Fold this protein.
Amino acid sequence: MANPIIRLRHLERFYPLAKGQFFYVLRDINLDVEEGDFVSIMGPSGAGKSSLLHVLGMHDHAWSGEFFLDDTAIHRLKAKERATLRNEQIGFVFQNYHLLDDLTVYENLDIPLSYRRFNKTERDALVCDALDRFHIVGKKDLYPRQLSGGQQQLVSIARAMIASPKIILADEPTGNLHSDQAEEIMKLFKQLNAGGTTIVQVTHSEINAGYGNRIVQLRDGFVVT
Amino acid sequence: MNDLRFALRQLRKSPGFTLIAVITLALGIGANTAIFSVIYAVLLQPLPYPDPDRLMIVTESDSNQPQISVSFPDYIDWKRDNTVFEQFAVSRRESFNLSGLENRAPEQISGAIVTANFFKVIGLTPQLGRIFTEEEDRVGGPLVAVISDRLWQRLFARDPNVLGRTVNFGNQPYTVIGVMPPQMFSPRTVEVWFPIMRRTDDQMWQTRDNHPGLFGWARLKPGVSVEKALAEMKQVAARLSKQYPDSNAGVSVAVTPLLENQVGDYRASLNLLLGAVVLVLLIACANLANLLAARGAARAREFAVRAAVGASRWQIIRQLLIESLVLALVGGALGLCLAAWGRDILVALSPPGVPRFQNLSLNGWVLAFSLALSFITSVLFGLWPAWHTSRADISLALNSGGRGSSDSAGARRSRDLLVIAEVALTLVLLSAAGLVLKSFANARSLGLGFDPQLLLSARVDLPSPSYEDATKLMNFSAALMEKLSALPGVQNAALASNPPLMTGWQTTFLPEGAPEPAPGKLPSVEMDVVTAGYFQTIHTPLLRGRPFEARDTKDMPPVIIVDQLLAERYFPGQEAVGKRVRMSTGEKARANSGQSSESFRI
């Protein structure tokens, strides 16, 4: 049997406080995510859900313990190597969408590719493909402010998927959407997962968690289930 | 291309910031461009002659003075004995009264008498006609003249038939044989050149310790350095010192590149000016860096998102640097326009006598400087904020509520340091400006030794063949004084060989009774020949003794007036009036007249 795509061992994330004290947001995390999993991380506010997602997304480097991604020991990599690996393997979807306000939908989709040394022709082909696949061709010249929340999140997911990552990390992707839009987005995640993409989402919603095949509960920085 | 497009979009999005940044940069870059254009025109622009780096000015020198005019016999020996110069010429500047042209009043023309090879040293050929030959440049040679392009334009409206025309210079009919091209400007401001050797039968010219205002012009042989030329010429001068100790003891030689000779005196002032405007630009950069850093903090989310979707740190820095570069280029273009508009003002404000200032132009070098400065400036004010912005914590920026700032304490501290640097630079600039103003005020309050208020001066050059006779000269002077004094509004009038503050003749002297110094070590002083009433005219009070009077004629015992500095140096604690000194002419003069109030030549 192949190793899990994500393996965390004794991972800890803490902030130094005064007088040599530390505030732990993640404590002794041991977690395996298999390729093709759709994992939902749940827990109360302040449990460390988003912190864990940022560690997995390699946005955060101030942690200790072991983190293997597809057998690569992330804890031994330098920041630049982690960034390269992140660009190849991971797409990120945010609760606030985090589209770039001054770029059109087309340009927002093009941006991740422009940072990955695709040539112009390849980029155009991939962007057009994503616009088509996510049914947003008609919106390509609009700016984020001209889109609804659901449409913005759709573009955000298209952006996360455009470089064909193996893993999508989604931080409360439907947190700012009403229920119809949330359902559409979750169906889309389900569809992507069915296509082979591993998904790890942070959610407060039991309904949304139900789209996944596994739930991880966090409390006070510990994995409790 | 995307980065450029996004940069333009960003700047359009914040017109207020963009406007302030562009104006700040335009003023900084414009000031630097304007001053650089002056520096280029005056200091850096190559001379408009072939191989200008090989052109040298050769003068004599001694322990008192770095440059002395060359004695004619020394020139002949130098020319014969050196192996470093391809051509070696001498010139002497003179003014000539031009007359005899129909419908044109006589006027004074700045000219030079030069050796025939002078033009070969310069390396230019006439645009019309020819230069004079070695055969024409001799005692008893023909009266020929080569004129400048400016004179050709002014006197003859560029008439091609000017060759062969006769023009009176100093009451002597000279035939115009050539017209030099417009770029010929050596010696400076000269408009007509005559053969020099006609004068060399004058006994004074053949005297080795007489320095009749000659300056050497030489063209180095290819491959010969200035240092090598100087070393060899010093050997030649040392040989002459041994051979002619009475006149040449302690006399050496100076070899200076022509360009340095022409503009070297202005280098320090112009560099100071450039330093001042560079400081202004640095202050502008510190200011902008602070603005950009604050803007970068406000845009932390944008760059966190870019990093999260794959931007490397360098790609973020590049994006920000391109924005800075666009700002700097727009600012630089506007600065260039300001410099272009300011050109005429600079020329109008230029101090008189600075060579080549009028050539000020925004040429390729100035444009390249402006462009390079824009690039450097963009890095100066853009790199630090870009560096800080690119270091932002992605997760912190993305979690801080979407649009907030993730400005760290370190970034804030750095911004504080920038403000400190800005204030420090401003203080340096203000202090320097204050010192310059203080020096200027000191210079203004310095006692000149005479009162320049309501004092007018005019220069009169009498043609030497007509006025070589001393009696004629005296008669002219007396007639001129009489007419000047009779003019309404004229209180006093006098004649002097040179006006106050202008270099006059130099002569050696020795107080009577002082030990005879070694050859070549006699003290040297500036000397002026003046008429009675001179000190009353320039309002210089006499401290002791009496002024020159009408009775001080050549038939009376010779007298001199010395200044306070000389009296204190050579007659310390003594009454100088009544003392006798030996002048270089061998005459003894009785210093019974008095002292002026200041250490200026009287």
